[in-house]
Amino acid sequence: MTTQEVADRFYALDQKQDFQTIYAELYSPDAKSIEPEHSGWGSVQGMDAIHEKGKKFSETIEEMHGGFTNAPIVAGNFFACVMGFDATVKGKGRVKMEEIALYEVKDGKIVSEQFFY
Question: CA torsion sign, 43 to 47 to 48 to 54?
Answer without folding.
Answer: positive
